[in-house]
Amino acid sequence: MADQLAVASRRGLRPALPLLLPAYLWLTVAIFLPLSAMVFFSFMTDLPLAGKEWAFTLGNYAAFFSQSIYSTLLLASLRLGLEVTLWCVVIGYPAAYVLAKVLKGRSREAIFLLVILPFWSNGLVRIFSWAMVLREGGILDTALNAVLPFKINIDLMYSYPAVIIGLVHSYVPYMVLTCYLTLQAIDDSLIEAGRSLGASRRQVLWRVIIPLSMPGLIAGAALIFVPVVGSFMEPRILGGRTGTFYGTVIEDQFVAVFNWPLGAALSFILLAVVLIILALAAPVLRRAG
Amino acid sequence: MAGVQVANVSRSFGAHKALDDVSIDFADGGFYALLGPSGSGKTTLLRQIAGFDFPDAGRIAIGGESVERVPVEKRCIGMVFQNYALFPNMSVADNVAFGLSVRGEPKAAIAAEVQRALDLVQLGKLGGRRPHQLSGGQRQRVALARAIVTKPRVLLLDEPLGALDKALRVDMQIELKRIQREIGITTIFVTHDQEEALTMSDRIGILRDGRLVQEGPPEEIYDRPQSEFAATFLGDANIFRGDATGNGIMLQDGTTINAASGASVPAGAKASCAVRPERIQISTGAAKPGSADANTLKGQVSKRIFAGNSSTYFVDRDGQTLKVIVQNTGAERLVEGQDVVLRWSPDSTVLIGV
Q1: CA distances from B290 to A78, B133, B296, B326, B344 (A)
Q2: ipTM of the complex
Q3: Strand-pair partners of B353
Q4: Within 13 Å and on the Cβ side, how many CA atoms surround A187?
Q5: What is the pTM for the complete model shown?
Q6: For B52, which of A192, A203, A207 is closest by C-beta distance?
Q7: Going from the N-terminus, what domains does chain A have, and what CATH number goes with each?
Q8: The domain defined by B4-223 carries CATH number 3.40.50.300
Q9: CATH number of B236-353
Q10: Does the distance separating the beta carbons of B52 and A198 come in below 8 Å?
């Protein structure tokens, strides 16, 4: 990697331009321009549509600080992001370990396919099928009552756990994939060397495998935490009344209230907060990795 | 420190018999080489002794204590891996300290032990480096220091010099031998390099297809191989096949070859004779006076390879190509196509039953 960069800089950027240009042109058109427009909107009093009057204002940003509901919801969303990320680690890392270090050949391919299956199904379909499972008298409730000798009432629908379940289901493949890649790169002889030096399997896990797979854990956590903090689909459908989060408020501004400027401003505040968190975490994470 | 006893150990992977009833006694403090071509089972045997894998049948004892079902971390062994297997996330000193630190020894004691081990492998100043900042030879030394710092009962080496270039390998052979003598640890060394096995070990075990072919001191195996395989795998050998005569063999054309040592094969049975290339004298025509029972063959030089201090002649004789190595003493050199007489003593000939 370092060698390739050195070669690229020695030859200059020009020969690489034909290769870089399509991607960056596309990013400019598809992301940079709309995003710039959103930055512009976030400083407006109203949308400049249908000849409406508008002026520049900082009021949209001020609203975040003057109304405590927004920061409360942002904190709730950050907590949601943290919890979902932790569950993804707890569920995804052992699966990645088994995929990378225990299974071989065709059984590995089969299990791998099952892990990435959620990617191939539509997000809405996924969420609504969870609704079928989690509601009272739903699949989970009926199945448990059919097996258990006593009557229990499972009604997870429209609750915080339902939101967590839905989000973890959507995002756990990211954790499995990033951890799988780093775990697979760990030479098996390192594990054997650790054990030959008298370390138990658990000691080898904590002192050798987890430190070496830190880059995968960090990448997975970043890939999960950022979108979950801004998520709105799972909270709205699975959370019901309890599913009001920062992401659903932003969505409301765009879809229901039609207050694009406020929605844009809230989005950029979220972006700033996430960037600050990642920047603060970077030195700690770099040391760990 | 302790000896290792391997008794009737077998291990199969599916239909493949990786180890087939292998028994070897590794005496306390010795330096053993397990030698064999790839797939001969030498690494499998080492892994059974280490405890990474358990035998299907048989017994393994370290220091008289049965360990064949004891997991590797409880066997108190030291192991050096082919690719060194240093932990890339730790400094050199932390790598060496690993075995002591998982035992929960006090930090100050660990630091002193680590420094002693690094000094022993002459890397005393490099404790703060990361493995990727070291050369291949230095990594090798770190791996060795890490393996011996825990004072294991046995040191196991899995082709540890395979990844080094020739000059460095010779240095490390000497170094490894020095360290092994200094701490007096029983050492079992897996290699496919016959020269390495000959120069380093007190005893060699030759494996082939999961079976122990021959075991003994290097000189004994070299001078008295018990099979054609042992004769040709450890060093070079000319092999003659014929019918046993009681004290040698008779070739198809009626020539007899006398052997002073080797197996006792009943007269008339199929047998082979092995003779080392450097034991054969080569001369032109006129027979020098020699002992009456000396083996003599006529042939024709087909090729000569000059190697500085010696020359290797390939001599064609009755459809067989024989190899003869002659020291360059300044005597007349033979040319290709020349008729020659080969002569060697029965003392240099080993009879092998087929």
Answers
A1: 98, 62, 10, 18, 9
A2: 0.84
A3: B271
A4: 14
A5: 0.82
A6: A192
A7: 16-57 (no CATH), 67-288 (1.10.3720.10)
A8: yes
A9: 2.40.50.100
A10: no
